[in-house]
Amino acid sequence: MTPNSDRVVLALGGAGTVGSGVVKALLDKGFKVAVISRDNSRLERLGSFVSASTKDNLTTIVGDVGTEEGAELAKQALLKAVGKVTDIVSSLGFSWWQGGPPHTQSLKDLQWVIETLLLSTFVSWKTFFPLVRDDPTCTYTFITGGAGEKLLMPGTGFLTVGAASTLAFCQVLREEYPEVACKLNQLKINTGVAPPERMAPGYLNHLHLGEGVAALVERCTSSHSVFTVSCPDDIKTVLLEGDL
Ligand SMILES: NC(=O)c1ccc[n+]([C@@H]2O[C@H](COP(=O)([O-])OP(=O)(O)OC[C@H]3O[C@@H](n4cnc5c(N)ncnc54)[C@H](OP(=O)(O)O)[C@@H]3O)[C@@H](O)[C@H]2O)c1
């Protein structure tokens, strides 16, 4: 098995709530990690959030992976900086949306939701998947939300529409590429995720979730699997210990 120190993980959305927990845990396990964000100040915050002793293993790149040109530019900058990518974790999107019921919304609102949740996931997958596709020691992990299966509460409809489109996209990839060498997996989170200072009842601590995702990436065994996490205990049983 390739040692973690020889593995380079691209964390798409790695500056976000979910992604930053994943990035910290991967670095703590000895992986090298690269993060692309549109916002340099978010990348700087990420740099001071990770363990100081691992900071040298973190590469940050300012870029927009939601457009074909932006993603291509980011890929060139990434390869120049890190040389190769062995693993990809994609947690693109946003944390929460409760803009109101559909009749109060504009087409622009729906376009933003689809762009942020689905189009960035698709464009970045199309751009970066070729880097890992043909290697059985490589992984591509999508982090998705159970919000795509039901309305979480009144006014969150477009969150459901966007999250559902990402769930469907992951299903399509599993079915269109049944034989692909790279380990292609999806993690579906059925509850809120937050940093320790913003935890609410039933929420997952992003640090704890990050440890679970890092264990899944490290293990590199299953493929075409959907791992469902609905409560903190699931992180242990589903991700850390690897039961489906
Ligand atoms: N948070 C939760 O409670 C929760 C629960 C269940 C599932 N999830 C899943 O986790 C995903 C991420 O949630 P989160 O809470 O981490 O959201 P977040 O804090 O808003 O982070 C999302 C990240 O996606 C990045 N992003 C979006 N579009 C991009 C683009 N075009 N180019 C580059 N980066 C882009 C953002 O980067 P910038 O820095 O460029 O803005 C940001 O860092 C969700 O979409 C959902 O599938 C979250």
Could you walk me through the main structural features you see in this protein, from its secondary elements to its overall organization?
This protein is α/β, with parallel strands linked by helices and 244 residues long. The protein has a single domain, classed as NAD(P)-binding Rossmann-like Domain (Rossmann fold), CATH 3.40.50.720. Helix content is 43%, strand content 18%. The protein has seven helices and nine strands. The chain has helices spanning 17-28, 40-49, 68-82, 107-132, 157-176, 206-219, 232-240, and strands spanning 8-12, 32-37, 58-62, 87-90, 139-145, 183-189, 193-194, 204-205, 225-229. The strands form two sheets. The chain has a seven-stranded parallel sheet, sandwiched between helices. The model has no long low-confidence stretch (mean pLDDT 97). NADP nicotinamide-adenine-dinucleotide phosphate binds at residues 13, 15-19, 36-39, 42, 64-66, 91-95, 116-117, 120, 143-145, 189, 192-193.
Task: Report the order of strands and helices.
Answer: EHEHEHEHEHEEEHEH
Overall domain count: 1
Side-by-side strand order of the widest sheet: 3-2-1-4-5-6-9
> Based on DSSP secondary structure assignment, what is the total number of beta strands?
9
What is the number of helical segments per DSSP (H or I, 4+ residues)?
Answer: 7
Largest sheet: 7 strands, parallel
The assigned structural class equals alpha/beta
CATH superfamily: NAD(P)-binding Rossmann-like Domain
What ligands are attached or bound here? NADP nicotinamide-adenine-dinucleotide phosphate
Global Rg: 17 Å
Q: What is the CATH architecture term?
A: 3-Layer(aba) Sandwich
Uncertain residue ranges: none
Q: Look at the structure and give the CATH class.
A: Alpha Beta
Strand content: 15-25%
Organism: Merluccius polli (Benguela hake)
Protein name: Peroxisomal trans-2-enoyl-CoA reductase
Keywords: Oxidoreductase
Pfam family, one: adh_short
